[in-house]
Design a protein that fits this description.
210 residues; Rossmann fold; 8 helices; 6 strands; binds guanosine-3'-monophosphate-5'-diphosphate; GTPase activity; Small_GTPase_ARF; nucleotide-binding; acetylation; golgi apparatus
């Protein structure tokens, strides 16, 4: 008896249950030139921060062509990572994702002096986008395990040249090695704090299904 009431009760219970367990969801774009280490970084982040995740051996990781997606639950929120391909023909697609994003991780290959200016130019183009205003920005000077790489002291001033484009958003340049995992947790934790602080500007994009 009371089938309709039961269904109303079930629906509201289901809604309440979902409200209690659902995590706020945020989208983080991983950008950078091809070969910078985007795919390797996403694997390292999943391995370090996802319980029960068995990482892929670095030799099995292939460079990003198109879209590579990962999900990590950390500090009570869910981060959906979108690792976009860095090849020049794919860079034109990046801005389609800017409006949806809550943070950017920009990866620099610190061993590649020949392409550092190219990387900086596309970085400047990215941060000039009106759709990214106020969005936290984590710049990773990757491949720090390679002895002759550029250190953060060398990379930072290059990417800070156009400080007026960075504006008031949270921005940090961090030395990491996606291959060894050094600096990966620190970077994600910093980003989570920034995303939480920035919810008034970019509220979470909660999904219907968890
Ligand atoms: P992408 O997704 O940005 O295109 P990948 O880049 O993650 O595919 O990495 C490109 C190459 O750089 C890979 O080498 C990968 O192992 C290497 N790499 C990524 N991060 C690091 C790092 O922190 N240290 C070192 N030493 N190498 C790194 P291969 O040889 O497979 O092309």
């Amino acid at each position: 008896m009371g089938g309709q009431n039961d269904s109303v009760y079930n629906d509201s219970f289901h809604g309440f249950y979902k409200y209690m367990v659902q995590k706020d969801e945020f989208c983080v774009l991983i950008l950078g030139l091809d070969n910078a280490g985007k795919t390797t970084f996403l694997e390292a982040a999943k391995t370090k921060l996802s319980k029960n995740y068995i990482g892929v051996h670095p030799s099995k990781i292939t460079t990003t062509v198109g879209l590579n997606i990962g999900k990590i639950d950390v500090a009570g929120i869910r981060l959906n990572f979108w690792d976009l391909g860095g090849q020049s023909e794919l860079q034109s697609l990046w801005d389609k994702y800017y409006e949806e994003s809550h943070a950017i991780i920009y990866i620099v290959d610190s061993t590649d002096r020949d392409r550092i200016e190219e990387s900086k130019d596309i970085f400047d183009k990215m941060i000039a986008s009106e759709f990214l205003q106020g969005v936290p920005l984590l710049v990773l000077a990757n491949k720090q395990d390679v002895p002759e790489c550029m250190g953060v002291r060398e990379v930072k001033p290059i990417f800070n040249k156009n400080a007026h484009l960075i504006g008031k958003r949270d921005c940090m340049v961090l030395p990491v090695s996606a291959l060894t995992g050094d600096g990966v947790d620190e970077g994600i934790k910093w980003l989570v704090e920034c995303i939480k602080r920035n919810v008034f500007l970019r509220p979470p994009r909660n999904q219907e299904e968890t």
